[in-house]
Amino acid sequence: MAATRPIRVLVAKPGLDGHDRGAKVIARALRDAGMEVIYTGIRQTPEMIVEAAIQEDVDAILLSILSGAHMALFPRIMELLKQNGVTDVLVAAGGILPDEDIPAIKAMGIKGCFGPGTPVEQIIQFVRENIHPERLQVEV
Amino acid sequence: MQNQNQNLIERLLSGDRRALARMVTLIENGVPGIRDCLAELHRHAGRAHIIGITGSPGVGKSTLVTRLTREFRQRERRVAVIAVDPTSPFSGGALLGDRIRMMELAGDPGVFIRSMASRGSLGGLSAATRDVVRAMDAAGYDPILIETVGTGQAEVEIMRAAHSVMVVCAPGLGDEVQALKAGILEIADLFVVSKKDKPGANQTAAELAMLLSLAPDRRTAAWRIPIVLTSALKGEGIDQLVEALERHRRFLEDSGLLRQRAQRQIRSEIEALIVQKVLQHLEEEVSPGEWQRLLSEISERARDPYSVARELEERLGLPR
Questions:
Q1: How many angstroms separate the CA atoms of B9 and B19, rounded?
Q2: Which residues form a coiled coil (chain A) (predicted)?
C-alpha cells in the first residue's frame, strides 16, 4: 500500500507575473505521471504557498517564476516553511533563473532548478527520486 | 508507534493544522492502524454541520464555497472545506484546481481547505471523504463544506456524507433542470441558482419550483426545499443561503432527522468497512494465477460466474 500511494505535489506561481503556461504544462505532465497535483493559480504570496503546502500535506512544492523576483521570494518561502516546521518537503523551482543565481537558490534548500526546454520526463524523475524518504513511510 | 499516533491525535485535537493535514493524508492512504485513530477521533466528532455542495461542472461550486466560507467566517465559525476532483482512470493522477477559486480565503487561520482526488471512487466523492470529515469535525471545524466532483446526475453519494445537501444550478445551461429530475433532484435539501446576474436565472428558479411542486415527496411535507438565487460576482444572496442552511440544520435537529441521518450514514460506513475487509480476504485467498485460470474457464464457458462466486464464498467462510 505504501509504495502505490500517489505523490502529492503543489505547483505554485509566486509573485506577480501571470505567465502560467509552463506551470500548467508541468502540472499536466505530473498528473499524467500518476501524481496528485494541486495547482494554486497565479500571483501567490509566499504565505499563501506555504499555507497551501501545509493544508494539502504535499510531498513536493514546485515553484514557477518568470518575473525575476526569485531572489526576493524564494528565501521568504523557505523561511516560512522552516518557521512552520515543514522540513520534509521537497522544493524545486523552474522558469527564468539566471545561472549565476542557481548556487544561491540551491543553498536555500531548493533542490532542483529547471530552465526553459527541460524535458518534462526529467522533472517527473527528479520528483520521484527526491521525495523525502520518511514521507513515503506511511505505516502508522 | 502507538505513542506517535496518540501524539498526532492530541495535536489535532488541540487545533494544530499540520497534524490535521497529516492525519488526512494517513486516512487517504488507508495506512494500517488508521482505524484505531479514527475510532478515537469518532469520540471527539459529532459537532459539525456537514454541508454538501454538488452540481454540474461550471455552475460555480468552488466560487460559491468561497463566498459561503467568508459568510460563515463573519459569523465567527471555523470552516473546513473538502474539494473533490476526479482522478484520471488512465494515469491514476489528478489535477486539483479548486484552490484557484478559493484564493481569497488564503491567510485566514480559521479556514482549512483540503483538495482530494476521487481515487477511482464513483458518485462524486472519494472513499475516504467521510473519514476526513470525521477528522476535521474532531479538530473543531464547523461547518464542514464538501464540494463534490462536478458530474451532474449520479453523484448521490454526497447524501451519505452530508447533513444538508445543496444542489447548484446555473442559468443558461439549456434543459439542465429537466435532466435534474431523477437522482440529484431527490437528494437536494436546498437549491441554489447561481449567477443570478445572468439572464435566465429567474426562469431556472421558476422551473425548479415547478418541478418541486410536481413531485412532492414525503420529505417536502416537513421541509419546504428553498430555492436561493445567488450572485457570487455581486455578493448577493449569500447571507440568505447561510440563513437557509442554518434553518435546515435546526430543522434536522428539532425533527430528530439529524440523528436518523447520521445513523443511516454510519450503518452504510460499517457496511463499506465489512465489504472492504471481505475484498481484502479475497485478494489474499485467490492468487493472480488462480484468478486467471478461473476467468479463462468462465470465458470458455466451462464454468460460470455464479458457481465460482459460491465456491469462493465458501472458501472465505461465508454462509450460503
A1: 7
A2: none
